[in-house]
Amino acid sequence: xxxxxxxxxxxxxxxxxxxxxxxxxxxxxxxxxxxxxxxxxxxxxxxxxxxxxxxxxxxxxxxxxxxxxxxxxxxxxxxxxxxxxxxxxxxxxxxxxxxxxxxxxxxxxxxxxxxxxxxxxxxxxxxxxxxxxxxxxxxxxxxxxxxxxxxxxxxxxxxxxxxxxxxxxxxxxxxxxxxxxxxxxxxxxxxxxxxxxxxxxxxxxxxxxxxxxxxxxxxxxxxxxxxxxxxxxxxxxxxxxxxxxxxxxxxxxxxxxxxxxxxxxxxxxxxxxxxxxxxxxxxxxxxxxxxxxxxxxxxxxxxxxxxxxxxxxxxxxxxxxxxxxxxxxxxxxxxxxxxxxxxxxxxxxxxxxxxxxxxxxxxxxxxxxxxxxxxxxxxxxxxxxxxxxxxxxxxxxxxxxxxxxxxxxxxxxxxxxxxxxxxxxxxxxxxxxxxxxxxxxxxxxxxxxxxxxxxxxxxxxxxxxxxxxxxxxxxxxxxxxxxxxxxxxxxxxxxxxxxxxxxxxxxxxxxxxxxxxxxxxxxxxxxxxxxxxxxxxxxxxx
Length: 542
Hints:
Structural class: alpha+beta
Mean pLDDT: 82
Number of strands: 13
Largest sheet: 6 strands, mixed
Strand order of the largest sheet: 1-13-12-9-10-11
Low-confidence stretches: 502-542
Shape: globular
Helix content: 40-55%
Strand content: 5-15%
Number of helices: 15
């Protein structure tokens, strides 16, 4: 491969395994609001204490300690609430452990880079694949100090991981640090306190198959009535029998409402969570349930009707449609989005762009979308990119993991599959082999558009380059077809290409010399931008 790294095989991304829908609890009375706050505060305090106990157990945790914690919580709430709290605690502790491992790996990557650059002479230039030495003795000294700091952090992080120590903040570390920067956050202490308390509340219940409407703790009937099983210390607030409180609000899920209604009608498990949006002063209820694991379609089936290759960028998706032979069809498409502003704004922008992309894929009739399997976890280190602060901010702001998960989930609802490909060299080879040939006076090709073609061709199993060298000896089939030529069963593959201009009559010219017959265009570069060249038989090569 001439020093190029080996490319990973393309694969069909597995479909979603869960569903979550949300609706607002409208027309709540003052009593409803008071009860929800009391339940959230009481169960939130229990969850905080349970998380503290779990962190204290560390690696010594086992089934006996879990059962002991659950028995203690049951006396202060109920067995089902205690089960939901302990399960949430274990999930949070496991997430903290995974983040701890990622932090250790990030520190190790930075240490490796610093050690390499410090070992080189000052001023030595780097290569494409490795950074050079530092530019001055002063910079070398500062980086040596940073290396010592990173090594100390790495040693401490490894010691915590080996001992099973994690550092978790219920309510979020970012919100906790905001308490020290209220002026910059434009919050008063009371406003911050309201957010902090709301984030630490716990009003959630896991579903139970076979129970009435799929959940005994938070029950939602088919007509939208919501009732909550109160914990034992708050049982005096109940307004119905069996220690339950029924809210005056009625719920109705506009999205996936039929699917939700089918589940509760069959008494299948549905988990619920109630939370308060402090900024808006609104209560919301989220319903979630698991889906059976759907077998992904074979890769060849996903490639049967062509592919749409999508290049992910900081502000847009660059997409190009390809037929099953890897030939570009039509014009490039771009779906823009803006990742500035709040998290809600960024999420809405990504969702809108993906919706437009999927609707276009459905219209053109493809079965799959090809996308890069991006992961910038090892690329965000300050040591790797040095002074390229803008670039570090760029790759840190691209939600690659969430984007792929959301695309898979949204595409599955329209019967589309997502093929993930190795992202190596797609922009470089796409620009090298496709940008210039497809550029015409009426079509402007960017590097990102060409990368979309490269991604689509890799998802289809074709090389990125446009065609291979012709067979040896001559242009006949004596030595076999080109390696990426259309299959023997494809109709019209040996047909001639219609001329793009009128041919002059054969025979001698008026001057007495015989003129050569005008030949049809054989390359993409010669094809006019308005012609649907990608459907032509002679272009069905790689």
